[in-house]
Amino acid sequence: MEPSPGLTFFFHDTYKVITLGGGFMAWVELWRGILLCNVLLDDSEPHFIPLPPPLKADNELIGDAQEFRDIAVVQGYIKYVEIQSCISDGWVAATWSRKITLDSWEGGWRKDCELHVSDISGSLPELLGDEEARTAQLNLQSLHTGNPTTSLQDDDVVYFLAKVGLRDDKSYVLAVNMRSKTLQGAACFGAERVLDMNFTCTQSRISHHLRNTPGKS
């Protein structure tokens, strides 16, 4: 593996660890790429998968990468999402995927979807049922938006953290279908202990295993 840019050695800052099947585990560095190896073998050769080029070529890759990017394994694919800007001046987001092939890691990324916030249809106040939001004429383009989180169950859906002001004590989670460019859901939560756009939540498959219990008449 080549040295990291500006260094004489390979540097990998792990943000999350994912399992790929067949004994392969992957350590995700959201600014650069994915380091993986088969942990069941004594002499496993490590592999490195670079991430796609940034949406904005001259973007300086600094700060907390989780505010801009996420990676997850969904239905046999590695899914990657990036949002170009967290500031409320119009943002662009895109998703990529690559099929997990345990016998070879030579494949490339496929760009699945890209959208601008102005492309998204759906009313945030109506989804929230929030009179305060309705009165304030809350709209997607006026929000600071970041922390993209790939859905583990709904293909093409990405969750975003959104705030009116970076220091507000109220935040929103937005469910956006990247392919149909629609706002599918929204929820409000108290964010008194959340500074700016810091990491707030993560995805889970637990709801996939829940069963509704019939109520008593």
Automatic annotation (TrEMBL):
Domain DUF1618, first and last residues per copy: 27-159
Pfam families for the chain: DUF1618
Top-rank lineage group of the source organism: Eukaryota
PANTHER family named among the record's database cross-references: DUF1618 DOMAIN-CONTAINING PROTEIN, EXPRESSED PROTEIN-RELATED
Name of the featured protein: DUF1618 domain-containing protein
Organism: Oryza glumipatula
